[in-house]
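Hi V.,

Quick status before I head out on leave. The structure for the redesign project is tokenized and pasted below; the design run finished overnight.
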């Protein structure tokens, strides 16, 4: 029987495609299968499938309509899949300089195909796209077996039939006839059994694979070169890659293919990753080939919690102290910027730094700020707990002896009642951000430049995607004008999925009712899309994370307010995220979620907590039961010393319990929560996860809560994709995922831990295009974008600090300055826990400066 089957296949490939011949081939197979006692189902199956048909639909459209056409395909493909007899579909995208798109749809019978093509549903969908087409549908129906080799309209030459005949003769015919004979001779006792048939099948498949993989052998390559010029089975039918990166160490995070030498890219997606020889088969005229010369490449990093939209509007106004090794360097930078800043502009240092990173291990004093900038307003934000203003800034914001303390903070005063320049975030940080908002803003055209500069800085650090968590004073849609303009002009170099953050206490439900009428989750493109609600859902549920202060108790009415909002979001299938620091708050929030779930099941709706530093195992279980996730940020890398000062060294060992979250199989994504507290540098976060240390060097975690490097990286890529419902679409270098990847300045997997912090990108690719290049790859860099205004701090300090010799510290002077006794009003001088622990603040020489007490700042 096998001999007859193989013979029929030979006839089918050699002879011209005629319906009568195909019926003959399938009819003969049907008769032979009918005689088989071992395979009674084969007869009906073969006859039922003899008429499988493939419809090839070709469309001509201009390149600028490609994105909209892709979105349309995303609508029509799932609809087609619901029709009876649908077997699958493929899309053949145009090559470089071409405009022919082909869609291949397979049905089990011509009748089912006809039902789909003539349906009213398809007609309506085709009418939507018709205005973009240069001409109407061009269709072709194919049934012959030759289609197994190369699909029609794949924009390549079909293999000659005599070559198809030879492949069948040399591979299919002998393997299907010789293998059963040999196995029957070697295993006579198993002859005719099902296990032997399975062994035969495996041998045939393996033999065929070995022949087809032997493409380095010239005779075989000549014979099947048309076949091997195509992507291997299962890959997209694209003739030519637009970009190939080769001779590198490419960590794909694809578990089936973890390490590759090269990667091919076309149409903004990964074609394939593998050996140099294999990937070069995708090269053609116009392919850009980049020799990585052994550099390490990884998928693009994805920050699951970044305030990018708000941060971009102000980036060009801010002096960054991230990574600066000494306070002397920081003050020098501040003075130089003050000398360059015109009136009435301010010098702003807004987050991303900790006094523990400085060699001096202390904060600046108010007098030092006044000396560095006697006439230019200076605003220095320290984490979520305080801000320092020099005399010029106090005058600019109008804080005087008569100014009352606002509801959301405290103005520290001297013995005469005059403001000193220290603002304390007690009971929350409203005073800090309200004061910052009093400063001059950039005009709209410069906010565009500022946002583009911020994206370039993120690209420099290897970031290609971010989930924007909204933020205070960031109204929708008013404050999204700039990012929407950049999206419309195709000037975004970081993909953004954005959450909407309520802005009106006690009117939160009104905000979300309005927004659910305006938007649908997922609305937008792969570069800019709506992601849902949060991180603020109701103001009464905000548990402010100032570890210098006691844990706040949420008000009694929180549950009712949160329930109304969550009920509305679940009812409208809006994903949501919620800021939560303490386990006590999380318990009460989960009570609300479980109640809503009983009324309206979540049923796979993506939701998650942000932060969750002190979450317990019990509440992790509850999160998992509701299908939620946890987005973790490296806030403890900047606040770990303060946490230890209040709660003790033992309490910090699993704060947050990232390893336990992974063990319990809860989705975990990583991020920064930049820009106002932690740094936006993902390598600082990766260093924290891998080493378990703060930016000041304090060891917090033992091995039980430190992550292997590959695990930490996966959470920063594929892990974060879950939080924008894009799992399987980004985060790995594998077929059909978005072509976002990064070539690193150092090998993340082998450098000493301390060097992880200094890693950056030397080549960043987003959507298959180079958006940043440095060092050896500088010639590939896109044209630079001039920084505006010309006095911007970014002109002199373009982002995160780069290695420089630290300035000498003057520790002796610091000790002599501290004159207080008793309570300083910031944290009560309860320093005994920290002093007894093995952390930097235990150093008596530097201790008082480290804690940055308000009395010291006088």
């Amino acid at each position: 029987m096998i001999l007859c089957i193989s013979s029929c296949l030979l006839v089918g490939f050699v002879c011209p495609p005629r319906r009568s011949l195909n019926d003959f081939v399938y009819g003969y197979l049907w008769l032979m299968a009918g005689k088989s006692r071992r395979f009674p189902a084969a007869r009906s199956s073969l006859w039922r499938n003899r008429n499988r048909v493939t419809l090839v639909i070709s469309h001509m459209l201009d390149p600028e309509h490609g994105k909209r056409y892709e979105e349309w395909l995303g609508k029509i493909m799932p609809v087609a899949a619901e029709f009876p007899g649908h077997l699958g579909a493929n899309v053949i995208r145009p090559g470089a300089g071409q405009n022919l798109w082909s869609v291949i749809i397979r049905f089990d019978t011509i009748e089912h195909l006809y039902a789909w093509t003539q349906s009213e549903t398809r007609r309506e969908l085709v009418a939507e796209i018709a205005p973009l087409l240069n001409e109407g549908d061009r269709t072709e129906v194919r049934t012959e077996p030759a289609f197994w080799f190369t699909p029609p309209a794949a924009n390549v030459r079909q293999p000659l039939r005599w070559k198809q005949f030879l492949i069948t003769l040399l591979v299919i015919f002998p393997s299907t006839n010789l293998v059963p004979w040999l196995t029957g001779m070697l295993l006579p006792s198993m002859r005719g059994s099902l296990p032997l048939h399975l062994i035969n099948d495996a041998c045939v498949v393996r033999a065929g694979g070995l022949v087809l993989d032997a493409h380095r052998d010239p005779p075989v390559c000549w014979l099947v070169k048309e076949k091997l010029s195509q992507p291997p089975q299962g890959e997209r039918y694209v003739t030519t890659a637009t970009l190939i990166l080769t001779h590198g160490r490419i960590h794909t995070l694809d578990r089936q293919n973890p390490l590759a030498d090269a990667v091919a890219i076309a149409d903004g997606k990964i074609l394939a990753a593998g050996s140099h020889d294999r990937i070069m088969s995708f090269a053609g005229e116009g392919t850009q080939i980049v020799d990585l010369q052994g550099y390490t490449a990884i998928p693009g990093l994805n920050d699951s919690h970044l305030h990018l939209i708000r941060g971009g509007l102000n980036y060009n106004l801010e002096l960054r102290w991230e990574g600066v090794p000494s306070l002397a360097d920081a003050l020098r930078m501040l003075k130089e910027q003050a000398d360059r800043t015109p009136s009435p502009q301010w010098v702003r240092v807004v987050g991303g730094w900790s006094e523990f990173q400085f060699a001096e291990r202390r904060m600046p004093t108010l007098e030092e700020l006044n000396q560095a900038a006697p006439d230019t307003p200076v605003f220095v934000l320290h984490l979520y707990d305080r801000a320092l203003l020099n005399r010029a800034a106090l005058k600019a914001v109008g804080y005087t002896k008569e100014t009352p303390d606002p509801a959301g903070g405290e103005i520290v005063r001297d013995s005469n009642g005059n403001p000193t320049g220290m603002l304390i975030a007690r009971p929350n940080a409203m005073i800090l951000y309200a004061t910052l908002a009093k400063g001059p803003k950039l005009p709209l055209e410069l906010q565009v430049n500022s946002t583009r500069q911020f994206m370039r800085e993120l690209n420099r650090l290897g970031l290609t995607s971010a989930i924007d968590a909204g933020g205070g004073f960031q109204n929708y849609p008013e404050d999204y004008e700039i990012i929407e303009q950049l999206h419309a002009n195709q000037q975004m170099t970081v993909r953004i999925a954005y959450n909407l953050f309520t802005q009106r206490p006690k009117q939160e439900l009104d905000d979300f009712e309005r927004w659910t009428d305006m938007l649908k989750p997922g609305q937008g493109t792969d570069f800019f899309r709506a992601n849902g609600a949060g991180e603020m859902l109701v103001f009464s549920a905000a548990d402010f994370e100032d570890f210098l202060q006691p844990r706040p108790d949420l008000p009694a009415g929180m549950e009712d307010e949160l329930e109304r909002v969550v009920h509305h979001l679940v009812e409208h299938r809006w994903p949501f995220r919620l800021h939560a620091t303490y386990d006590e708050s999380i318990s009460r929030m989960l009570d609300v979620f479980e109640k809503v779930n009983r009324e309206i099941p979540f049923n796979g709706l993506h939701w998650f907590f942000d932060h969750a530093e002190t979450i317990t195992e019990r509440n992790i279980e509850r999160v998992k039961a509701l299908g939620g996730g946890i987005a973790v940020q490296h806030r403890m890398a900047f606040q770990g010393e303060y946490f230890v000062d209040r709660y003790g060294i033992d309490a910090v060992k699993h704060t947050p319990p990232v390893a336990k979250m992974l063990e319990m199989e809860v989705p975990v994504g990583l991020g920064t929560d930049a820009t106002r507290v932690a740094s936006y540098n993902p390598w600082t976060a990766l260093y924290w996860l891998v080493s378990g240390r703060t930016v000041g060097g304090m060891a917090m975690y033992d091995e039980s809560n430190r992550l292997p490097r590959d695990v930490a990286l996966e959470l920063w890529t594929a892990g974060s994709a879950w939080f924008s419902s894009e799992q399987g679409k980004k985060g790995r270098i594998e077929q059909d995922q978005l072509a976002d990847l990064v070539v690193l300045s150092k090998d993340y997997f082998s450098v000493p831990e301390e060097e992880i912090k200094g890693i950056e990108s030397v080549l960043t690719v987003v959507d298959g295009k180079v958006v940043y290049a440095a060092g050896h790859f500088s010639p590939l860099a896109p044209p630079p974008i001039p920084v505006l205004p010309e006095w911007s701090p970014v002109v002199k300090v373009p982002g995160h600090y780069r290695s420089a010799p630290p300035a000498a510290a003057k520790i002796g002077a610091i000790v002599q300055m501290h004159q207080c006794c008793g309570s300083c009003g910031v944290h009560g001088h309860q320093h005994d826990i920290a002093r007894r622990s093995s952390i930097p603040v235990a150093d008596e020489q530097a201790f008082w400066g480290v804690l940055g007490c308000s009395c010291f700042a006088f």
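Above is the designed sequence. Residues 315-438 form a domain with the Diaminopimelate Epimerase; Chain A, domain 1 fold (CATH 3.10.310.70).

G. will cover questions while I'm gone.

Best,
W.
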